[in-house]
Amino acid sequence: MPFSKFGLDVALLRAVQKSGYTRPTPVQTAAIPKVMLGYDVIAIAQTGTGKTAAFVLPLLHHLSQSSGERDIRALILAPTRELAVQIMENIRNYGQSLPIRVAAIYGGVEEEAQIKALRKGVHIVVATPGRLIDLLGRQKLDFRILKMLVLDEADRMLHMGFLPDIEKIISHLPKRRQTLMFSATLSKEVESLARRFLYQPKMVQIGKRSNPADTVKQCVYEVSAHLKNALLLELIRQPKFTRVLVFVRMKDGANLLTNFLKLAGIKVARLHSSRSQEQRLQALQDFKDGKVQVLVATDIVARGIDIDGVSQVINFDFPVNPEDYVHRIGRTGRAEAQGEAISFVPKQDLNLLGILEFSISQRIERKRLRGFNYQAAATTSALGEKAPKQDWRKRTRELETKKSTPLNKRVSQERAKKNSNSQKS
Ligand code: AMP
After folding, report:
1. Which residue, 166, 211, 295, 407, is most buried by CB atoms nearer than 10 A?
2. 7 Rama class: left (phi>0) / alpha (psi -120 to 50) / beta
3. Is the pTM here over 0.90, yes or no?
């Protein structure tokens, strides 16, 4: 079915054409007609398959047909700030020749500009739950005439930790509305939770419930934990590793690994929740622009984020549950491009690998890097001649202490050191 058969406004058809899309993706073909008809929809489709346009296009169509009053008609909720910004950019792109206004509401930045945008009037709000609840409590938003609610990455949004926030937000919305839920994975339990917020939803399911994208080639390297740094460095020095997204479990781990790679001469940025919003956006931008070869990130980047041409996703730390694995590796092989997902599995994580393979009904290929010393005792010795000159652990410790010690204290420490040295001599 071509885009023209959906009955979308011509301005949207033009925008689709301008984006270079020749035909709708399967999730678009299945979901757009249902959303156009006003049904509630639960859509499960592999990540990177054009889900955003599947809800943004019919939403913009509905808005283009109603009066121009600047009242909030649609709310889109997303689990991370980056995803909220990305959805807003998609709306601006597809709706570029429509008089539709959109604002993104998320934490980590000054709220003033966001409140100002709301005061001026917008038709669509894209938000993360925290800041939205804060502004709702202070009566900065009026959802009385809202017509549509979208939950992107719905499984994450309905996760136990988020659920009370979502319930609170939904209690502020009109009961008669259209509700859409989009997700790459959706367990049966989460689906039954979701149904509380939907009215006789139509289901759209493309592929299996939690299937890694078919365009991603997967493999694992069984490697001792202390050799993961060395193996990573060895791999990313190969020419085909052009834009590499490396996932780690903890923020500290992200900092340590970034410092290690920097010292080895790799251009690298890091992204985790303790960084300022400005730093987070900058890291993502530098990675998208190709200014850095590697982005080291925690799972906040795993969901929904669309980065063109990620050549490899590397699970430096193995993901704790299969859903996270599916989301992480979906950052590569997007829009039918070939991608590669590599996972490091030390002995202690072999059980997690077993659970994953059972869950995706697939055995993942085991690989070994030729010439790599898997028996080496220390990180650097496995690298042979290519080892970074500095002792990275020592240097990282130095950098970390420097950062956490205030300048005046550092100056007096230096002075004391000098004095004791001169006394000795
Ligand atoms: P999403 O799953 O929404 O993150 O989209 C993944 C990528 O697919 C984005 O880069 C979109 O621009 C692209 N895309 C969306 N719809 C189409 C389409 N019909 N044809 C080709 N690419 C598309």
Report:
1. 295
2. left
3. no
Structure tokens at 40: 């509630």
Fold of 216-383: Rossmann fold (3.40.50)
Nearest to 189 by CA among 323, 93, 342, 367: 323
Atom number, ligand 1, closest to the C-alpha of residue 47:
2
Reading the chain (425 residues) residue by residue, the pLDDT tens digits are 899 999 999 999 999 999 999 999 999 999 999 999 999 999 988 767 899 999 999 999 999 988 678 899 999 999 989 899 999 999 999 999 999 999 999 998 899 999 999 999 999 999 999 999 999 999 999 999 999 999 998 888 887 678 889 999 999 999 999 999 998 877 777 788 888 899 999 999 886 555 566 678 999 999 999 999 999 999 999 999 999 999 999 999 999 999 999 999 999 999 988 888 889 889 999 999 999 999 999 988 777 677 888 899 999 999 988 888 988 888 887 655 678 999 999 999 999 999 888 888 789 999 999 989 898 865 444 444 344 444 545 555 554 554 444 444 544 555 565 556 545 43
Pairwise CA distance, residues 230 & 227, whole Å: 5
For ligand 1, say whether the CB of 48 is within 6 Å of any of its atoms. Answer: yes
The residue whose CA has the least distance to atom 6 of ligand 1 is: 48
Closest Cα to atom 1 of ligand 1? 50
We find that the CATH architecture of domain 3-206 is 3-Layer(aba) Sandwich (3.40)
Q: Is 372 left (phi over 0), alpha (psi -120 to 50) or beta?
A: beta
Which letter does DSSP use for residue 289 in this model?
T
DSSP string computed for 267-285: -EEEE-TTS-HHHHHHHHH
| Max CA distance (Å), the chain | 88
Residue written as token pair 């002792």: 391
| CA 42 – CA 152 distance, rounded (Å) | 10
Angstrom distances, CA of residue 361 to CA of 11, 65, 174, 341, 374: 43, 45, 42, 17, 29
> In terms of Cα–Cα distance, which of 117, 192, 119, 108 is closest to 154?
192
Task: Give yes or no for residue 280 CB within 6 A of ligand 1.
Answer: no
Comma-separated ranges of CATH 3.40.50.300 domains in the chain: 3-206, 216-383
| CA–CA separation, 398 and 413 (whole Å) | 14
